[in-house]
Structures are given as structure tokens and as C-alpha cells.
Amino acid sequence: MQQDHMTVSPLVLQLAQPFCSLKGSRIPRMISMMRSSSSSSSSSSSSSPPPVPSCISPQRADEYRFERICSPAEWIESYHPGKLHPVELGDRFKNGQYRVIRKLGSGSFSTVWLAVVESNNFYVVLKIIAAGLHGELEIHQRLNSGPQCNGLQPHVVQLLDHFEHQGTNGLHCCLVFEVLGPSLSYMIEHLPKELQRPGATIYNQAFPLWMAKQIIKQLLLSLHALHGQGVAHGDLQYGNILFVVRGFDETHECNIAQDPEDLLATGKAHIVKRLDGKGDLWSPKYIIDDEPLLDFVDLSPSFSIKLADFGAAFNVSDPPKITVTPFAFRAPELVLGLPFDERIDLWSFGCLIFELLTGDSLFVVSSWGDPSMQRIDDDHLLQMSDTLGHLPPSMRTKWTTHSRYFDSNLQKIRTDVGNRPSMAMEKVAVFPGLKQRLFAATSAQAVSEVEAHDIVELVQSILQYDPEARPTTGQLLAHRWIASIN
Predict the structure, then answer these.
(1) What is d(CA 409, CA 427) in angstroms, rounded to the nearest whole number?
(2) Contact 248/123 with Cβ under 8 angstroms?
(3) SS3 assignment for 189-225
(4) What is the per-residue pLDDT across 237-287, written as a single tens digit (0 to 9) for each?
(5) Where does ATP bind (predicted)?
(6) Distance between CA atoms of 5 and 164, rounded to whole angstroms?
(7) Does the annotation list 427 as a binding residue?
(8) Residue 223 and residue 473 in contact, taking contact as beta carbons nearer than 8 Å
(9) DSSP symbols for 300-341
(10) At what angle do helices 343-358 and 434-443 cross, to 10 degrees?
């Protein structure tokens, strides 16, 4: 592990560009305002210092430390020992070599920032991971030292540097990456009007067909490069596929840096307040909404994407006991607790193909209302059975509640999940099959009958219950429909 005193990687130092200075004169005024507010609010509370928070995130509302903040950002309760490091605009890292100028994104186990390398004004992305987690760094080190590491560059986010940072919540692994743009999930909500698919609504937004096909091809190339190095991603989803930015290096800092006072005034930053009115040593003074670099995305036919966020990735030779794959993208072996390998990525890829082409999710699996995992799994397996056909006998025996929903002839007898009384048969819902849904979606986009059949055949070949039956990434690249995408 690199330590905080090491020099910047030569790859980071190779370029330089002009920039304008951050409007730092406004920051002290904003901080003073917040301290004044904090002081007045805490005067009525106990003057004793706050206790050290638990190293476990709260599970119940009565365990919360902070007033609720509803924004597209990290959960405020994740700031405690053993979890997120509090970052504020202008903070410097690695002995002052990196200065934070903009919030880009966040997750359950990290926050992501745009930073400037002070020695040459080069822009980088700084990902600060929750205390004690080093798995993502280990994966990148494996990828960068592998025999085919050069082949990864066009398809996978590039690690430029790494170091450790000691903060109030522990020792944090910090990763420095090349600058990339927003994710597919962010971009789909901010597409220019001319790129929005006709008839799309807020519930089924989709990229235009020509873009969807390019994303599918480039994502497959990413997986092919990754699996070739013996690594599985484990968390394939819209949020981890990022657009490449163009012309960003020449941009002046004053055009991209965030100003705390402006953010607070426009509601894009939120002052952090404890419920007991005390100050807090483990959280930032304000939470900033995620704001990726939307204005620098190239949406021309030459656009590119890269696969990012390897926090759930694993060596194929040593898979973990569990994964963090989103519910709706889980392969059946994950749902049923069976052994798994890199082929879980292929299942997720098949689900993504469907979503990219149709604008709809193949499976809608929700944890809303905090249902039990059994209910979530049952719901998912029922949808699989409707969409793809019955599970093979070897898997049905692992589905412990199978007899609750199907009789001995595999006829569905109920569809509601959990322990509620069975629904009447006439109310039992059946999801349309995969072929029916794909044909309906492709015909609406003027896809030829031949191409539609190729798409259906491709997706069906990927979404095989038996992992052994799924094609490899190399076989998929040779598929007629994939090969036709230029």
C-alpha cells in the first residue's frame, strides 16, 4: 500500500492545463455562518462533548444522530468511525498534492471527488473509500499487473495513483482515477431532447437504438477484457458504466469548481445538524449533492463508455461468499445461494441488454417496505419462471418455498409472496415471456424481423439458468448481431 508521503505517479504528471483559482474568499464566510448557526443551536443543549458514535450504522430511526437530509448524495448517518471520511471543498490530500474542487458522486462505501494535482494543475478523480476497505485497490493492482493490462485501457477506468489517509473515522484507502463523466443511470435522465426515444416516459426512458447498441458492444468488450484477467465485476449495472469526457483537460478550474456558498444558496448543499444540537467531529459541515461532469460528455456517434467501480469485483479463482449485485440483476445461482463465478456478470449483462433495448427492466425486484429476503427471492424467482420458463429440477430443489407457488404439475397456484393468504386463481398474474417482450419492443423501433430474431436468440442464449450453458464473452463477441455493431 502506498503511504501518504509518496510522490505522484508519473502517469498523473504527464499533462498540464491552465486553470482559475477557487473562490476561496467566500469559503471562510460560509464556514463562519455555519459555525454561528451551530453555536446558537447547541447553546440550548448540553455543553458536554458528543459521545463517540458507534462503528455500526444505525438500524432504527431512534438511533439516528442527524437531522434528515433528502438529496442525491450519501447517507448522512454513514459518517461514523469505520465508515465514510468527511470531505469538504478545498480539502487537500497526500501531503497537499491533491486539492478537492467538486463533488462527483457517492455510494454506500465511498465518496467521489474531482481534484486538482497542485504541481501541474492536472485533473483527476479522487475516490475515498470507507475505512478499512482495500479490496478495490487489490483488484486494480491485479488488473494493472496482468499479462493483458494494456488491453484494458480503452474499456476499464484507469487507476493512476493510490495512498492512505488517516481521518477521524479511520484509515481510508484513496484511489486516484482518470476523469470520466456521468453514469448511464444519470445520463438517461439528462438526455438532450433530440436523443430521447419517441414515446418514452419517466418510467421507461431509453437511449436511442444506435446508442444502446454501441453501449452493449462496448460493455461486452469491457467484460471480455476483465474476464480475460481472471476478474469478475460482480456489480454490473447502469450506475457503474461511465461515459468518457472530451475536451475536459483544457477547461479552466473556475468553470468546473464548486463554491460552497453558491451550493448552499441553491439548495445543492445541506448543512449537517445533529439532533442533540451538539457539534460533530465525524461528519462534514455540509453534504453536497452529487454533480457529475454532464457538460463534457461526448454524445456523438464516436462516444465511449468505460466500466468502473470495482468495489464488488473479485478474483474468479477466489469468489466471495456473497455479492452486492443489485436484486434485479442477480443470476439464479445468487438468489438460491449456489456457487458462482464470473458468469454472474453474463446474466447481469443479459438483463442490461434487455433494458437498453426496451427501456424497461427485465425483472422488477423491490425491497420497498423492508420485506424479508425470502419474499424478495420468491418474487424474483417467480418473475424468472414467468419470463424464462421453469427452473431446472436441480434448482427447484434449492427453492425451499417452491411448493407454495406451484403444484406438482408446475402449475402456478399463487403469486403473492410471503405468508399472506393465497390469492384466488383468477387474480394470479403471469409476466409476458422474454420473446414476447423483446419482439414488442424491437418492432416499435422499426427493427427488421431478421434483426429482432437475432436479438431474441442472443438474449435467450445468455439468460440460461445453468451457468455452464451461458456463452463466454468471446463467443458473444462472435455472435452475428454483436459483430454487426460497428
Answers:
(1) 19
(2) yes
(3) CCCCHHHCCCCCCCCCCCCCHHHHHHHHHHHHHHHHH
(4) 999 999 999 988 889 999 999 999 999 999 999 999 999 999 999 999 999
(5) 127
(6) 9
(7) no
(8) yes
(9) STT--EEE---TT-EETTS--S-----GGG--HHHHTT----
(10) 40
CA distance 299 to 210: 11
Domain 209-243+298-483 top-level CATH class: mainly alpha
Q: How far is CA 98 from CA 72, 75, 112, 284, 303, in A?
A: 25, 25, 13, 18, 29
Domain ranges of the chain: 12-179+250-292, 209-243+298-483
Chain centroid to CA 231: how far? 18
Contact criterion met (CB below 8 Å) for 318 and 139: no
Hey, what's the cell of 51? 459521545
Backbone phi, then psi, for 156, in 5-degree steps? -130, 140
Pairing of strands 305-307, 241-243: antiparallel
DSSP helix/strand/coil, 243: strand
Distance of CA 291 to the CA centre of its chain: 14
- Level-2 CATH architecture, domain 12-179+250-292: 2-Layer Sandwich (3.30)
Query: Could you tell me how many helices (H) and strands (E) the chain has, helices first?
Result: 14, 12
Q: Please state the pTM of the whole predicted model.
A: 0.86
